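Before a colleague's protein record goes any further, I have to sign it off. What it holds is a sequence and that sequence's fold in token form. My question to you is simply how this chain folds and whether the tokens agree. Thanks in advance; the entry in question is below:
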Amino acid sequence: MSSKPISELREKTVRTLFGMMDKFGKDPDIERWLEGQKTAASPDVRHPIWAEVGKISDFTDTQEELLLNYGDPVVPDEQFWQIVQVEVGEEICGLIRQEKATIYSADRLHKTWPFSLVLLREDKERGVDEAVSYLYHTPLPKPYVNQIRNILFTTWHRGGPHALKAREFLCHRCGDVIARERKAAETRFNQAAAITDDGLVYTADWVVVFEDGKMPCIFPGRSFGQNKITLSPQRKRMAELQIPKLDDTVVPGLAILTRMAEEQVKIMYFHGCEQCCALTAGKQKILFTHRKFCPARLPLERLQSIH
């Protein structure tokens, strides 16, 4: 059993899982990266996590409110209109210039970003503002979430009146993504029967524990929720094996587990797996391990020993 506190092992597991996620750039210290962004003069738009922020559709603010509250509009000059004309063509540029609307644009802070404009029109009859957009040369009835996000990135980058508010908003949404994944990682740890010091976790419906000179004992996997089996990262940990599907509607009987246990003793030695072996039968996952890798006190909740 590991001598490390359970909280330290949980945190190690969370960071290990973070380090395996493409959305976090496989950065186990993604939360430290976010802390740096909270004070940065310009956003690190190359980081893949921002794509997750662009997927979020449950904003409490409308797109119009996001622009008004966190975006800085363009003060168009002739140089700006020359850029627009190159991007959308002379005809559409002329139509945009006739619009009585507030214009927002996104700089190409990333080479993959498309040219986009968002126009905020005032609807005096309804007393509300309405956003319409242009992506390349195509008018859209509503901006994409990514367009709004990129405009806020541009506001942050330009350092205008709303730069700090835009940064705070985007970092907050980024923090929501990280918090969601942290909660999932902690749940995975809490449900695990076995862990390693380097942060890997193994779940199981059943755990069969062998001890020299004694009959194997069977435990529900959940019974190791607080005191986990701890496997060494320095040695081979796990052999993954499959057997024909069992009836998933019933708890595996002692007779079935007995046959599994007898075979697993041979398999563990055959594979040179000194610590444990996982066997999957349909949806049932059974972990076989030795008593020396278990906590000092075995769980009280157990099935009778296999005879």
About this structure: The first helix runs from residue 6 to 18. The radius of gyration is 29 Å.
